[in-house]
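Whether sequence alone determines local backbone shape is best considered at the level of individual chains. When preparing material for the folding task, we compiled for one chain both its residues and its backbone structure tokens. No coordinates are needed to read the tokens, only the vocabulary itself. For completeness, the protein is quoted in full, as a sequence line and a line of structure tokens:
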Amino acid sequence: MIVRAFITRQDPIHGLTIDGPTVPQFHSFGVLSGALAPGTITRSTKQQELMELMNETDGLSLWPILGIAVVAAVAAWDLAKRKGLNKRRWAATCFFFAPALIGLALAKSQQRPGDTQAFRNRWTSLAAYDPEIKAAVDRLGALGPAAVERFRMAYGDVQTKEAIPLIVADIERRWAAGDRLKGK
């Protein structure tokens, strides 16, 4: 006599619930075992949601996100350098939060006008060919390169030729008083 029983088994590997009657089977080595007859294979709704989530995130990789973060950090470093801002702080901020790059682009420059690359290029020509600036540079050259640098920065701030004699007199007065490193 063969007794059929209805069982429910949980498949631990695939997360399936298998329902169906057992059917006795004889193996080639003569042992009787209870195998599942063809029944229905069902998944619970939580298992289905988990499987769908796993399928959706299968192709997601961290490499594109990491690439965007690195590009944002490099761009922030360069932009902060040009604006005279803290390069490391802005690079780290944009690495972890790339939209901060927009804030950096809108931030005002902290550089003095005489410190920009454009003014440095212009200064080379002014010091070589403008008679008033050339005379002031020659006069301050006797005090040293720091005095000429201070003159370049002060002239970059005002950029008017009427101020040249005042700037030269101020630098000479400070040098005579020994106040070479204080002030801007």
